[in-house]
């Protein structure tokens, strides 16, 4: 069993840190916000809870929710313009500090690329460091499905992305930080998993994470030691 002080050392010596986005880097669940704009909030929110708790295979949950929402290109753009995601307190400082230390920061999300890229731009994270699901639209802007070839469209997809990053960049130590079951599953191949409960606490993650935090200040503090 790795001690807490060893976990802190591993985090401080990481050459890459991967963050989940919904309910971790931002306060909301992007898919639930999209459902609000499309008028199907309650049904979708219930499905999201089940998916994040690990009760339903991720792809099935994603497909089911999108079939209900049917978001058009215009509705996605309206969401970003009128209800932009709120950054979780402390994340801007944490990402900035990691960048100062020459640590590569990635966003790996089961959410949607157009929303996640908007978040990445606020944190000075290049879009090449974003892994998320792509929505597809017909030429008239109507919903046409999602790109099922993206690794993030599947359960275990975040782990696949981390494995890919290790192969491509030869990172020695990757840390995954997130609130949900799909984040916990990504370690291994991630070397360390840090559970985040600052926006929502998912019991399964809290019970199984060796290091669980509810405020990014704790990680900033570890970097200053």
From TrEMBL:
<dbReference type="Pfam" id="PF00702">
    <property type="entry name" value="Hydrolase"/>
</dbReference>
<feature type="active site" description="Proton donor">
    <location>
        <position position="22"/>
    </location>
</feature>
<dbReference type="GO" id="GO:0036424">
    <property type="term" value="F:L-phosphoserine phosphatase activity"/>
</dbReference>
<keyword id="KW-0718">Serine biosynthesis</keyword>
<dbReference type="GO" id="GO:0006564">
    <property type="term" value="P:L-serine biosynthetic process"/>
</dbReference>
<dbReference type="InterPro" id="IPR036412">
    <property type="entry name" value="HAD-like_sf"/>
</dbReference>
<keyword id="KW-0479">Metal-binding</keyword>
<dbReference type="InterPro" id="IPR050582">
    <property type="entry name" value="HAD-like_SerB"/>
</dbReference>
<dbReference type="InterPro" id="IPR004469">
    <property type="entry name" value="PSP"/>
</dbReference>
<dbReference type="InterPro" id="IPR023214">
    <property type="entry name" value="HAD_sf"/>
</dbReference>
<comment type="similarity">
    <text>Belongs to the HAD-like hydrolase superfamily. SerB family.</text>
</comment>
<protein>
    <recommendedName>
        <fullName>Phosphoserine phosphatase</fullName>
        <ecNumber>3.1.3.3</ecNumber>
    </recommendedName>
</protein>
<keyword id="KW-0460">Magnesium</keyword>
<comment type="function">
    <text>Catalyzes the last irreversible step in the biosynthesis of L-serine from carbohydrates, the dephosphorylation of O-phospho-L-serine to L-serine. L-serine can then be used in protein synthesis, to produce other amino acids, in nucleotide metabolism or in glutathione synthesis, or can be racemized to D-serine, a neuromodulator. May also act on O-phospho-D-serine.</text>
</comment>
<keyword id="KW-0378">Hydrolase</keyword>
<comment type="pathway">
    <text>Amino-acid biosynthesis; L-serine biosynthesis; L-serine from 3-phospho-D-glycerate: step 3/3.</text>
</comment>
<feature type="active site" description="Nucleophile">
    <location>
        <position position="20"/>
    </location>
</feature>
<keyword id="KW-0028">Amino-acid biosynthesis</keyword>
<dbReference type="GO" id="GO:0000287">
    <property type="term" value="F:magnesium ion binding"/>
</dbReference>
<dbReference type="GO" id="GO:0005737">
    <property type="term" value="C:cytoplasm"/>
</dbReference>
């Amino acid at each position: 069993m790795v001690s807490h002080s060893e976990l802190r050392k591993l985090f401080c010596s990481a050459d890459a840190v991967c963050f989940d986005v919904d309910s971790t880097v931002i306060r909301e669940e992007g898919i639930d916000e999209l459902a609000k704009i499309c008028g199907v909030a309650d049904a979708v929110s219930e499905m999201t809870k089940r998916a994040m708790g690990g009760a339903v295979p991720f792809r099935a949950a994603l497909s089911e929710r999108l079939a209900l929402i049917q978001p058009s290109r215009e509705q996605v753009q309206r969401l970003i313009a009128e209800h932009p995601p709120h950054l979780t307190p402390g994340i801007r400082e944490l990402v900035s500090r990691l960048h100062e230390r020459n640590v590569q920061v990635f966003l790996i999300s089961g959410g949607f690329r157009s929303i996640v890229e908007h978040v990445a731009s606020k944190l000075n994270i290049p879009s090449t460091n974003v892994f998320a699901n792509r929505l597809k639209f017909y030429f008239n802007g109507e919903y046409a499905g999602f790109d099922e070839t993206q690794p993030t469209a599947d359960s275990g997809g975040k782990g696949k992305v981390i494995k890919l990053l290790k192969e491509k960049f030869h990172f020695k130590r990757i840390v995954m930080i997130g609130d949900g079951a799909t984040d916990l599953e990504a370690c291994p191949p991630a070397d360390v998993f840090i559970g985040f409960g600052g926006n929502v606490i998912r019991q399964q993650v809290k019970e199984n994470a060796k290091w669980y935090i509810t405020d990014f200040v704790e990680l900033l503090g570890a970097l200053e030691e």
